[in-house]
Design a protein that fits this description.
By secondary structure, the chain is α+β, with helices and mostly antiparallel strands. About 20% of the residues lie in helices and about 30% in strands. Strands 1, 3, 4, 6, 7, 8, 9, 10, 23, 24 and 25 form an 11-stranded mixed β-sheet that branches. A 6-stranded antiparallel β-sheet has the order 11-22-12-18-15-16. The chain has a 4-stranded antiparallel β-sheet with strand order 17-13-20-21, with no helix packed on it. Helix 5 packs across helix 13.
Length: about 650
């Protein structure tokens, strides 16, 4: 009996001690940066009514946990200080200690894959990584998290000092931005990377904010995303899992030893977009075709040509993976090593991934062939195909894919932004828009909505700067419509919000890669905008020349710009014609125009083909080429148009 009593007492003591433990979100950690010149909020959980004391840099604040065990302490605002200090948080029976804590500027870095893209691999990254150690730059990577409700803590992530090991796997844009800001200000800089590739702006915006939009009017009475689309989202998560762990990969459909029974495989004539056969379908579809080779081809090297694959492929020959490419309009050329081919039947297998719009192996039939020893073997014609992961296979209707975890309102805000609300930040930098390029008209509303939403949650109008979409895709020979230009226009319009800035990068993109590898210049230009907007550096231009007005002068149009100094071409040839301008008359047909700088603030545009011009566009293309209007800042003017004629996006 006495033994039982002692056991019970020991259990109660242990239970009470466990309940008394002070806990805090993961982003309160060693090496953290606290925002200077703002009251410093610290919060966490403890036992109902427990007293909690926070001590840091000579300040001490005691608070009491509420009935739910929540507590919050606010330390006084402090000046920037790179001296590493200890913070203690003491409860009834335990003390949490954070070491190497500094005070400086904290920037939240968010968006999709171009913000998420790591420093390795980017242009000249190895030399930069080797020299990246800096104890006054601190990094925090927020783990990916989809959530129906707003979370109290991030899924993973703690502050670390910037070292070659930590910088290598951190956001490249965030790293370069932070490095330039630290160089200019001299204060410690904390960078929080909370980004996820392939995501729409809607999923980064809170549920309360998105329910006010016309897009989400159908969910006005739903209290949370769980209530709105819980079942649909489960289907999408299962679909996403199938894309990550493809059944065809698991079943080795690329292996010649794996049979292709007729009941699972159908025939399709290639090349063509698969929508002609499958209807609207995204996801993964496998294609296979056998080609008979003579004995003379056995053991020889070869080259496999595919005209184009929308959007990505992984390609095998006789079970050997010979290549993989991402790019919806890029021809493929895969070299086959000696020994890959054999006499008789040779199996070619291509797994195609389509992320939206048309999909499949498409293009010119003459571009689909195998070449061995100078002999060409045509591959156009009938292939076998088998879907392995498509939305329809998981009960997801095509069109209006609202339950997609990377697009539906608030799912990433809840898991990756909401937990951070209240942690002091200097401002936010944003690189996103590619996923919304087909819906630029709604982006005009959604982008300012998200910025106001975040600012409202933090309770102050922090500076917000972003990267405008880079140049990408095929170069247009003639002026025309452009989804990406319309999205850039929506980004321009968002500059009407106070304390905002934009980095224009339409000269450093890559036609065949949506992820430009030059992230250094992106970070640099973003830092220029932030130095002007957030730090009041009037000697640093926030951006290049900004179009303000136009007037007609006979058969010419004169544009006036706001500029840091005299307008000039980026190549320095002040007396040459500018590039990137087009002009149209009342028929709305644009043609390339000649343009020259008339004086420090104006540009004259004309074309012999347009007698009575009424509208001008500059850089109005998916992939504008040679745009070269700058000023003393050296930063490019943003693409723009003077007309308001209907575009092509929703």
């Amino acid at each position: 009996m006495k033994s039982l009593v002692f056991t019970l007492l020991a259990f109660l003591v242990t239970w009470q001690t466990a309940q008394a433990e002070v806990s805090m979100p993961k982003f309160f950690s060693d090496n953290m940066v606290l925002q200077r010149e703002r009251p410093i909020r610290i919060w966490g959980r403890a036992v109902n009514g427990e007293s909690v004391t926070v001590r840091f840099a000579g300040s001490e604040v005691s608070v009491q946990a509420d009935r739910m065990g929540r507590w919050e302490a606010t330390l006084p605002a402090m000046a920037a200080d790179a001296t590493p200090r200890e913070m203690t948080v003491t409860g009834r029976a335990d003390t949490v200690r954070f070491t190497n804590v500094v005070v400086g500027d904290v920037w939240l870095c968010s968006g999709q894959s171009n913000m998420e893209w790591r420093l390795d691999p980017t242009t000249d990254c190895e030399a930069e990584i080797a020299a990246s150690a800096n104890p006054n730059i601190r990094l925090l990577s927020v783990g990916d998290k989809i959530a129906f409700e707003e979370q109290d803590d991030i899924d993973s992530g703690r502050w670390v000092e910037c070292t070659p090991e930590s910088s290598r796997v951190f956001s490249a844009v965030g790293y370069w931005f932070g490095k330039f800001i630290h160089t200019e200000t001299g204060v410690p800089v904390g960078l929080i990377d909370s980004s996820w590739g392939g995501t729409d702006i809607e999923t980064w915006t809170s549920w309360d904010a998105m329910r006010t939009t016309s897009d989400y009017a159908r969910y006005a009475g739903k209290g949370s995303p769980r209530e709105a689309i819980g079942k649909e989202l489960k289907n999408h998560l299962a679909y996403s899992a199938a894309l990550e762990n493809d059944p065809g990969d698991r079943g080795r459909w690329y292996d010649p030893a794996v049979a292709a029974p007729a009941k699972h495989w159908r025939t399709m004539t290639l090349p063509q977009v698969w929508e002609n056969v499958l209807g609207a379908a995204d996801g993964h579809v496998w294609f296979r075709k056998s080609v008979t080779l003579p004995a003379s081809a056995a053991g020889q090297k070869g080259v496999l040509y595919l005209p184009a694959v929308d959007d990505a492929d992984v390609t095998y020959v006789n079970g050997l993976r010979v290549g993989a490419t991402h790019g919806w309009d890029r021809p493929r050329r895969y070299e086959l090593p000696a020994g890959a081919l054999r006499e008789g039947e040779n199996l070619i297998v291509v797994r195609v991934e389509d992320t939206g719009g048309d999909g499949g192996i498409w293009g010119d039939a003459d571009g689909l062939y195998l070449e061995v020893g100078g002999t060409r073997y045509d591959l156009a014609g009938e292939w076998l195909y088998r879907p392995s992961a498509t939305p329809a296979m998981f009960g997801i209707a095509g069109g209006g894919n609202y339950a997609n975890p990377n697009s539906f309102a608030s799912l990433l805000y809840n898991g990756m932004i909401a937990p951070l609300v209240g942690y002091g930040i200097k401002g936010a930098v944003w690189y996103q828009g590619e996923n919304n390029a087909g819906r630029a008209q709604s982006y005009r509303r959604l982008f300012p909505l998200m910025i106001r939403d975040w600012r409202g949650r933090w309770g102050y109008e922090f500076p917000f700067c972003w990267v405008q979409l880079a140049n990408y895709m095929q170069i247009a020979e003639q002026p025309g419509q452009s989804e990406w230009a319309e999205l850039r226009e929506a980004q321009n319009l968002t500059l009407e919000l106070p304390a905002t800035g934009q980095a224009v990068i339409t000269d450093i993109g890559e036609a065949n890669d949506i992820h430009p590898r030059n992230k250094r210049d992106v970070g640099y230009r973003l830092s220029r905008a932030a130095l002007n907007v957030a730090y009041g550096r009037t000697d640093v231009a926030a951006g290049g020349p900004v179009y303000r007005s136009m007037e007609r002068d006979g058969n010419r149009i004169v544009l006036t710009f706001d500029a840091a100094d005299a307008l000039k071409p980026s190549d320095g040839n002040r007396y040459g014609y500018l590039h990137g301008f087009s002009v149209a008359g009342a028929d709305r047909r644009f043609v390339w125009a000649k343009a020259y700088i008339r004086d420090d603030k104006t540009v004259v545009i004309f074309s012999d083909e347009v007698a009575k011009p009424v509208a001008v566009r500059y850089g109005w293309a998916d992939n504008p080429q040679d745009d070269d209007l700058t000023d003393a800042s050296g930063l490019l003017a943003s693409p723009f148009r003077t007309d308001d004629w209907p575009g092509i996006t929703k």
